[in-house]
Design goal:
Oligomer: heterodimer
Order of helices and strands of chain B: HEHHEHE
Strand content of chain A: 5-15%
Largest interface: A-B, 31 and 24 residues
Order of helices and strands of chain A: EEHHEHHEEEHHHH
Helix content of chain B: 55-70%
Shape of chain B: globular
Strand order of the largest sheet of chain B: 2-1-3
Number of helices of chain B: 4
Protein backbone atom coordinates (compact mmCIF):
# COMPACT_ATOMS: atom_id res chain seq x y z
CA UNK A 1 0.00 0.00 0.00
CA UNK A 2 1.11 3.52 -0.70
CA UNK A 3 -0.10 6.68 0.92
CA UNK A 4 0.38 9.91 -0.98
CA UNK A 5 -0.72 13.50 -0.97
CA UNK A 6 -2.96 14.60 -3.84
CA UNK A 7 -4.09 17.92 -5.22
CA UNK A 8 -7.16 17.93 -2.96
CA UNK A 9 -5.96 15.87 -0.04
CA UNK A 10 -4.42 12.44 0.19
CA UNK A 11 -4.89 8.91 -1.08
CA UNK A 12 -4.29 5.31 -0.18
CA UNK A 13 -3.25 3.31 -3.21
CA UNK A 14 -2.68 -0.36 -3.95
CA UNK A 15 -4.51 -1.27 -0.79
CA UNK A 16 -4.02 -4.96 0.02
CA UNK A 17 -6.71 -7.31 1.33
CA UNK A 18 -5.63 -7.14 4.96
CA UNK A 19 -5.22 -3.36 4.82
CA UNK A 20 -8.68 -3.03 3.34
CA UNK A 21 -10.04 -5.25 6.10
CA UNK A 22 -8.50 -2.90 8.68
CA UNK A 23 -9.98 0.12 6.89
CA UNK A 24 -13.43 -1.46 6.71
CA UNK A 25 -13.24 -2.21 10.41
CA UNK A 26 -12.18 1.31 11.33
CA UNK A 27 -15.56 3.00 11.98
CA UNK A 28 -16.88 0.04 13.97
CA UNK A 29 -13.70 -0.31 16.00
CA UNK A 30 -13.69 3.43 16.71
CA UNK A 31 -17.30 3.38 17.89
CA UNK A 32 -16.58 0.62 20.41
CA UNK A 33 -20.05 -0.57 19.56
CA UNK A 34 -19.83 -3.79 21.56
CA UNK A 35 -17.77 -2.50 24.44
CA UNK A 36 -19.05 -1.91 27.96
CA UNK A 37 -19.44 1.71 29.03
CA UNK A 38 -16.45 1.72 31.39
CA UNK A 39 -14.10 0.88 28.51
CA UNK A 40 -15.65 3.55 26.30
CA UNK A 41 -15.10 6.06 29.08
CA UNK A 42 -11.52 6.69 27.87
CA UNK A 43 -12.99 8.59 24.94
CA UNK A 44 -15.12 10.73 27.26
CA UNK A 45 -13.22 10.90 30.56
CA UNK A 46 -14.24 12.78 33.68
CA UNK A 47 -13.34 16.46 33.38
CA UNK A 48 -12.33 17.08 36.95
CA UNK A 49 -9.93 15.58 39.46
CA UNK A 50 -9.80 16.19 43.16
CA UNK A 51 -7.16 15.44 45.79
CA UNK A 52 -9.86 15.86 48.40
CA UNK A 53 -10.77 12.25 49.06
CA UNK A 54 -13.74 12.99 51.31
CA UNK A 55 -16.00 15.24 49.42
CA UNK A 56 -14.35 16.75 46.37
CA UNK A 57 -16.47 14.69 44.04
CA UNK A 58 -19.66 15.46 45.94
CA UNK A 59 -18.97 19.19 45.72
CA UNK A 60 -18.71 18.85 41.99
CA UNK A 61 -21.88 16.82 41.55
CA UNK A 62 -23.76 19.70 39.97
CA UNK A 63 -20.89 20.46 37.61
CA UNK A 64 -20.70 16.81 36.57
CA UNK A 65 -24.45 16.78 35.99
CA UNK A 66 -24.12 19.72 33.60
CA UNK A 67 -21.08 18.17 31.92
CA UNK A 68 -22.95 14.90 31.38
CA UNK A 69 -26.02 16.71 30.14
CA UNK A 70 -24.35 19.16 27.74
CA UNK A 71 -20.66 18.57 27.08
CA UNK A 72 -20.40 14.78 26.83
CA UNK A 73 -23.26 14.53 24.30
CA UNK A 74 -21.65 17.34 22.27
CA UNK A 75 -18.30 15.55 22.23
CA UNK A 76 -20.05 12.30 21.41
CA UNK A 77 -21.79 13.90 18.44
CA UNK A 78 -18.47 15.25 17.13
CA UNK A 79 -16.84 11.82 17.42
CA UNK A 80 -19.83 10.15 15.75
CA UNK A 81 -19.75 12.65 12.89
CA UNK A 82 -16.05 11.97 12.39
CA UNK A 83 -16.72 8.24 12.13
CA UNK A 84 -19.57 8.84 9.72
CA UNK A 85 -17.28 10.92 7.52
CA UNK A 86 -14.81 8.05 7.40
CA UNK A 87 -17.59 5.58 6.55
CA UNK A 88 -18.75 7.84 3.74
CA UNK A 89 -15.20 8.16 2.39
CA UNK A 90 -14.65 4.40 2.56
CA UNK A 91 -17.75 3.93 0.42
CA UNK A 92 -16.02 5.83 -2.38
CA UNK A 93 -13.14 3.37 -2.69
CA UNK A 94 -12.23 2.50 -6.24
CA UNK A 95 -12.03 -1.23 -6.78
CA UNK A 96 -10.63 -2.71 -9.92
CA UNK A 97 -10.15 -6.45 -10.05
CA UNK A 98 -9.06 -6.60 -13.70
CA UNK A 99 -5.70 -8.08 -14.51
CA UNK A 100 -4.56 -4.72 -15.83
CA UNK A 101 -5.26 -3.19 -12.48
CA UNK A 102 -2.93 -5.51 -10.62
CA UNK A 103 0.12 -3.60 -9.53
CA UNK A 104 3.35 -4.72 -8.01
CA UNK A 105 4.11 -3.51 -4.52
CA UNK A 106 7.16 -5.19 -3.14
CA UNK A 107 6.97 -8.88 -3.93
CA UNK A 108 3.23 -9.33 -3.68
CA UNK A 109 0.74 -8.37 -6.36
CA UNK A 110 -2.00 -6.23 -4.87
CA UNK A 111 -5.54 -5.56 -5.93
CA UNK A 112 -5.73 -2.01 -7.07
CA UNK A 113 -7.98 -0.58 -4.38
CA UNK A 114 -7.65 3.17 -4.27
CA UNK A 115 -9.16 5.53 -1.75
CA UNK A 116 -8.92 9.26 -2.24
CA UNK A 117 -9.74 11.48 0.71
CA UNK A 118 -10.53 15.18 0.64
CA UNK A 119 -8.03 17.13 2.71
CA UNK A 120 -10.87 18.73 4.63
CA UNK A 121 -11.82 15.31 6.00
CA UNK A 122 -8.36 14.66 7.41
CA UNK A 123 -9.10 15.75 10.97
CA UNK A 124 -12.13 13.48 11.05
CA UNK A 125 -9.93 10.64 9.84
CA UNK A 126 -7.33 11.41 12.49
CA UNK A 127 -10.03 11.52 15.16
CA UNK A 128 -11.53 8.22 14.06
CA UNK A 129 -8.16 6.49 13.87
CA UNK A 130 -7.40 7.83 17.34
CA UNK A 131 -10.73 6.68 18.76
CA UNK A 132 -10.05 3.22 17.38
CA UNK A 133 -6.53 3.04 18.82
CA UNK A 134 -7.59 4.39 22.21
CA UNK A 135 -10.33 1.79 22.53
CA UNK A 136 -8.16 -1.05 21.20
CA UNK A 137 -5.54 -0.15 23.76
CA UNK A 138 -8.16 0.10 26.49
CA UNK A 139 -9.40 -3.41 25.78
CA UNK A 140 -6.23 -5.25 24.74
CA UNK A 141 -3.45 -3.14 26.28
CA UNK A 142 -1.80 -2.99 22.88
CA UNK A 143 0.63 -0.19 23.67
CA UNK A 144 2.28 -2.43 26.24
CA UNK A 145 2.23 -5.43 23.89
CA UNK A 146 3.79 -3.23 21.23
CA UNK A 147 6.53 -2.09 23.61
CA UNK A 148 7.19 -5.69 24.67
CA UNK A 149 7.33 -6.74 21.06
CA UNK A 150 9.88 -4.05 20.21
CA UNK A 151 11.93 -4.95 23.28
CA UNK A 152 11.85 -8.61 22.24
CA UNK A 153 12.88 -7.76 18.69
CA UNK A 154 15.76 -5.66 20.00
CA UNK A 155 16.87 -8.54 22.19
CA UNK A 156 16.66 -10.94 19.26
CA UNK A 157 18.75 -8.53 17.16
CA UNK A 158 21.39 -8.50 19.89
CA UNK A 159 21.28 -12.29 20.14
CA UNK A 160 21.45 -12.54 16.37
CA UNK A 161 25.09 -11.53 16.44
CA UNK A 162 25.89 -14.95 17.82
CA UNK A 163 23.75 -16.85 15.32
CA UNK A 164 25.12 -20.09 14.01
CA UNK A 165 25.78 -21.51 17.43
CA UNK A 166 23.96 -24.77 17.91
CA UNK A 167 22.50 -26.23 21.05
CA UNK A 168 19.98 -23.66 22.24
CA UNK A 169 18.60 -24.67 25.58
CA UNK A 170 15.19 -26.34 25.23
CA UNK A 171 13.85 -24.47 28.23
CA UNK A 172 14.72 -21.18 26.54
CA UNK A 173 12.80 -22.29 23.47
CA UNK A 174 9.72 -22.95 25.55
CA UNK A 175 9.93 -19.52 27.15
CA UNK A 176 10.40 -17.97 23.71
CA UNK A 177 7.32 -19.73 22.35
CA UNK A 178 5.22 -18.79 25.34
CA UNK A 179 6.19 -15.15 25.01
CA UNK A 180 5.14 -14.97 21.35
CA UNK A 181 1.91 -13.02 20.90
CA UNK A 182 -0.84 -15.35 19.71
CA UNK A 183 -2.38 -14.99 16.26
CA UNK A 184 -5.21 -12.75 17.38
CA UNK A 185 -2.84 -10.42 19.21
CA UNK A 186 -0.61 -10.20 16.15
CA UNK A 187 -3.60 -9.23 14.03
CA UNK A 188 -4.73 -6.62 16.55
CA UNK A 189 -1.22 -5.21 16.77
CA UNK A 190 -1.02 -5.03 12.99
CA UNK A 191 -4.36 -3.20 12.89
CA UNK A 192 -3.27 -0.84 15.69
CA UNK A 193 0.03 -0.06 13.97
CA UNK A 194 -1.65 0.36 10.58
CA UNK A 195 -3.90 3.05 12.07
CA UNK A 196 -0.89 4.64 13.76
CA UNK A 197 0.98 4.70 10.43
CA UNK A 198 -1.84 6.62 8.72
CA UNK A 199 -2.05 9.02 11.67
CA UNK A 200 1.68 9.69 11.43
CA UNK A 201 1.34 10.45 7.72
CA UNK A 202 -1.59 12.81 8.30
CA UNK A 203 0.25 14.59 11.07
CA UNK A 204 3.43 15.00 9.08
CA UNK A 205 2.08 15.70 5.61
CA UNK A 206 -1.55 16.78 5.68
CA UNK A 207 -2.89 18.32 8.88
CA UNK A 208 -1.83 21.89 9.47
CA UNK A 209 -0.93 23.10 12.95
CA UNK B 1 -39.42 33.90 59.27
CA UNK B 2 -38.68 30.74 57.40
CA UNK B 3 -38.63 32.67 54.11
CA UNK B 4 -36.02 35.09 55.44
CA UNK B 5 -33.88 32.18 56.58
CA UNK B 6 -34.02 30.63 53.14
CA UNK B 7 -33.01 33.92 51.52
CA UNK B 8 -30.07 34.30 53.90
CA UNK B 9 -28.97 30.77 53.15
CA UNK B 10 -29.18 31.43 49.45
CA UNK B 11 -27.01 34.54 49.71
CA UNK B 12 -24.34 32.65 51.64
CA UNK B 13 -24.30 29.89 49.04
CA UNK B 14 -23.93 32.33 46.17
CA UNK B 15 -21.06 34.06 47.93
CA UNK B 16 -19.27 30.73 48.36
CA UNK B 17 -19.76 29.93 44.70
CA UNK B 18 -18.38 33.29 43.62
CA UNK B 19 -15.34 32.81 45.81
CA UNK B 20 -14.83 29.37 44.32
CA UNK B 21 -15.01 30.72 40.79
CA UNK B 22 -12.18 33.14 41.56
CA UNK B 23 -9.83 30.45 42.81
CA UNK B 24 -7.23 29.47 40.24
CA UNK B 25 -7.82 26.20 38.49
CA UNK B 26 -5.28 24.10 36.68
CA UNK B 27 -5.81 22.26 33.43
CA UNK B 28 -3.85 19.04 33.55
CA UNK B 29 -2.97 16.79 30.64
CA UNK B 30 -2.14 13.20 31.55
CA UNK B 31 0.12 10.83 29.70
CA UNK B 32 -1.41 8.08 27.66
CA UNK B 33 0.41 5.55 25.52
CA UNK B 34 -1.72 6.10 22.43
CA UNK B 35 -1.67 9.78 21.46
CA UNK B 36 1.27 10.61 19.23
CA UNK B 37 3.71 13.11 20.70
CA UNK B 38 3.57 15.38 17.67
CA UNK B 39 -0.20 15.47 17.92
CA UNK B 40 -0.14 16.49 21.59
CA UNK B 41 2.28 19.31 20.76
CA UNK B 42 0.13 20.48 17.86
CA UNK B 43 -3.05 20.54 19.97
CA UNK B 44 -1.37 22.48 22.79
CA UNK B 45 -0.23 25.06 20.25
CA UNK B 46 -3.63 25.25 18.66
CA UNK B 47 -5.72 25.57 21.81
CA UNK B 48 -3.47 27.75 23.94
CA UNK B 49 -1.52 29.53 21.22
CA UNK B 50 1.78 28.39 22.71
CA UNK B 51 5.05 28.55 20.81
CA UNK B 52 6.47 25.35 19.36
CA UNK B 53 9.12 25.36 22.11
CA UNK B 54 6.68 25.77 24.98
CA UNK B 55 4.21 23.23 23.60
CA UNK B 56 7.01 20.72 23.06
CA UNK B 57 8.32 21.24 26.60
CA UNK B 58 4.84 20.65 28.04
CA UNK B 59 4.33 17.58 25.87
CA UNK B 60 7.64 16.15 27.06
CA UNK B 61 6.66 16.81 30.67
CA UNK B 62 3.41 14.91 30.07
CA UNK B 63 5.36 12.06 28.53
CA UNK B 64 8.13 11.88 31.12
CA UNK B 65 6.40 12.91 34.35
CA UNK B 66 3.02 11.40 33.53
CA UNK B 67 1.19 14.72 33.59
CA UNK B 68 1.65 18.43 33.12
CA UNK B 69 -0.23 21.53 34.18
CA UNK B 70 -0.70 23.19 30.82
CA UNK B 71 -2.73 26.20 31.91
CA UNK B 72 -3.89 27.94 35.10
CA UNK B 73 -6.67 30.47 35.50
CA UNK B 74 -10.33 30.89 36.26
CA UNK B 75 -12.76 28.04 36.33
CA UNK B 76 -14.88 29.02 33.37
CA UNK B 77 -11.93 29.08 31.01
CA UNK B 78 -10.54 25.88 32.52
CA UNK B 79 -13.82 24.12 31.68
CA UNK B 80 -13.61 25.41 28.14
CA UNK B 81 -10.01 24.25 27.70
CA UNK B 82 -10.72 20.79 29.12
CA UNK B 83 -13.58 20.42 26.67
CA UNK B 84 -11.30 21.50 23.82
CA UNK B 85 -8.56 19.07 24.85
CA UNK B 86 -11.02 16.22 25.25
CA UNK B 87 -12.50 16.97 21.84
CA UNK B 88 -9.06 15.94 20.53
CA UNK B 89 -9.10 12.88 22.80
CA UNK B 90 -6.31 14.06 25.05
CA UNK B 91 -6.64 12.80 28.61
CA UNK B 92 -7.30 16.13 30.27
CA UNK B 93 -9.02 17.33 33.41
CA UNK B 94 -9.22 20.40 35.60
CA UNK B 95 -8.16 20.64 39.19
CA UNK B 96 -8.68 23.25 41.88
CA UNK B 97 -5.35 24.66 43.11
Amino acid sequence: MRVTTTENGWALEAIGDLEWLFLERLPGTASGEELPEEQKRRILPDPIVSDDEDGGAAEEAEFMEDWNEYVRPELNVAFTEARQQVSDDLATVTRNFSAEAMVEVGEEPQKNFRLEVDGEHSENWYSTLNQARLLMNEVYDLAESEAELYAKMATEDDDGEGEGEEGTDDADDIVEEDSEPDGMLWLLLAQYQFYSFIQGFLLERVIKA
Amino acid sequence: MSIETEEQTQVITETDTDAELDQPWSVVVYDDPVNLMGFVTMILRRIFGYSEEKATALMLEVHQAGKSVVWTGNREKAEFYVQQLQSHQLLAAMKKN
